[in-house]
Amino acid sequence: MRRIASGRLVPRNCSCPSAMETRADLKGVKSQVQNLVEELHGTCVNTQREATLQLRLLAKHNMNNRIVIANCGAISFLVGLLSSTDKRVQENAVTALLNLSINNDNEIRIATAAKAIESVVHVLENGSDEVKENSAATLFSLSMTWENKVRIGRSKAIRPLVELLGNGSLRGEKRCSYSIYLVEFVMNPEAGIVYQTIAVLAAFCTSHEGRIAIVEEGGVPVLVEVLKLGSERGKENAAAALLQLCTSSDEQCSMVVDKGVVPSLVAMSQSGTPRAKENV
């Protein structure tokens, strides 16, 4: 989820913007952003659409712009517009927050803003398909620190995320990433829905693309952990997923065995549920 700036070295004899020019550019951006922020708390929907769109675009590729936008106080207004009844305003606002969250300081600012995570969850539950996907991506981006993980886990975001994963609207690799990320929350017994998330991973395992994505995204250790420590339903789905991996590729089978899965499978074959035993 992190965008990494190019690490190319610039030759000394090339024509580069001077520090003065850079400051002038930032001053111009600041003035533009201040005007856009003023427009955010107006009442004209068309103005809000355009202002949120411009902030979304300004925050898309430029780290300095992300800092300026946050420093100008845009975050709280963007959060407020997540409850807009206009779908375009809502989409632009959540995507602008997603782009802003790439900056580590902004990630904290957004997560700690009043009702920010709850508002992102609101559009995750009620927005259009694209808004839902960008909301999920925003939560994913915000979850890079443990404190934010706790905030997200307490916000009742898990169930709508699982539902989004289950409806098939996300590309396989992205859905797999989100599934694995969700397991960090749902391994907590209080969440109560680990089996739903692992069921999504098990469904991915039925396709070649899904199996590759699960392996590349680090899903095998997650499945093994659920097999060892999860609920009975979670263990059933984990066993089904691991069976798909083992029967489709010798390389994937070796990877599963190397993770120490055999003792758990033996225990399941002796004391697991009938469905789980079928997958052992």
TrEMBL record:
User: Under which EC number(s) is this enzyme classified?
Assistant: 2.3.2.-, 6.2.1.45
InterPro entries this protein is in?
ARM-like (IPR011989), ARM-type_fold (IPR016024), Armadillo (IPR000225)
Give yes or no: UniProt keyword Secreted.
no
Swiss-Prot/TrEMBL ARM repeat ranges: 73-115
For this protein, the record's PROSITE patterns field holds: ARM_REPEAT
What are the UniProt keywords, alphabetically? Acyltransferase, Ligase, Repeat, Transferase, Ubl conjugation pathway
Q: Which GO terms describe its molecular function?
A: acyltransferase activity; ubiquitin activating enzyme activity
Name listed for the protein in its UniProt record? Putative aminoacyltransferase, E1 ubiquitin-activating enzyme
Source lineage: Eukaryota, Viridiplantae, Streptophyta, Embryophyta, Tracheophyta
